[in-house]
Design brief:
2 helices
């Protein structure tokens, strides 16, 4: 009788461990997806707040300086 109860308890505990392991494996991709979404939101925040104006202005000044004809020395 005692052996029967112990074997049933062992299957109950083993089933719980398998269930928790499956839950952990499902939570890992879920946490990764949430983290990727948060990172994408954070990485994209600066693109909305500033334009390419200063970079393009600097490139135009650089291009004009390179196109100028300098007297050779």
């Amino acid at each position: 009788m005692v052996n029967l109860l112990i074997s049933q308890l062992w299957w109950y505990v083993w089933g719980w461990e398998v269930g928790m392991a499956a839950l952990a494996w499902l939570l890992i991709p879920l946490a990764a997806a949430i983290g990727a979404g948060l990172w994408g939101t954070w990485a994209n925040r600066t693109r909305r707040s500033r334009s390419d104006g200063p970079e393009l202005d600097g490139y135009a000044r650089f291009r004009e300086a390179m196109e100028k004809q300098h007297s050779g020395t």
